[in-house]
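chain below, 284 aa
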Amino acid sequence: MTLPSKVRLYEVGPRDGLQNEKKIIPVDVKVALINRLSETGLTHIEATSFVSPRFVPQMGDATEVMEKITRRPGVTYPVLVPNEKGMRAAIKANVTEIAIFTAASESFTQKNINCTIAESIERFTPVIKLAQHHHIKVRGYVSCVAGCPYEGDIAPEKVAAVSKTLFEAGCYEISLGDTIGIGTPDSITAMIEATKENVPGTHLALHCHATYGRALENIKAGLEQGITVIDSSVGGLGGCPYAEGSSGNVATEDVLQMLNSLGIETGVSLDKILETARYIKEQL
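prediction:
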């Protein structure tokens, strides 16, 4: 199958990568990380999350981070928003893109945000309306697309159905997340094929975890299915606080090296990404 000639990397390090760190990271370190990433050629850098500091203390400085970063022209700085309160704070911070999240697993959704999948999407209705009113783009995350720590394997049709609901609700892009990293090229292919029945492939992204060392081969399977947006985290930082054993987002530098070897254009400097990975690892 033909691989795409160009891929957009969506950097999640500053948010998904740092949210699990136990020791609170200084605002200036987060700002420096984002500013360094802005100089690499990346066009989408997920900066922070407007969640309750009670639940995710590491993201309690979201407003200050957004105030202090240097917003480079041509670079978008999305933020994760869990509810209407978070959305209003994001609007005050002059964001231009937000991300909302649900899962393809009922058990995971209950553990993560204490509601059903349907209820989680219903909660986001006022968030999406506010975003549209303020001309803010909305991205949707679907977790557990290959498997769930509580339910095991997840049917591709379930992923397709949830993705369709988010797309029809107003998300311009759906990121398909293998939260616990148990996907294989075959299961990732089947999941994307099913999802493309409901959502155009041009509106899909792939978010792989390297928990079992399969992230790169799973990403390649996604590329073969026409996926042109890949989520990654500089230095391989992060994972999900509600999925045991999920640590290890795929490293941006590893994805970039693979894409370079395949002759796929990204516009991102590997040298600058490696420098940034070294910087944040020293800080941690």
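Residues 156-169 form the longest helix (14 residues). Residues 240-246 have pLDDT under 50 and may be disordered.
thats it, cya
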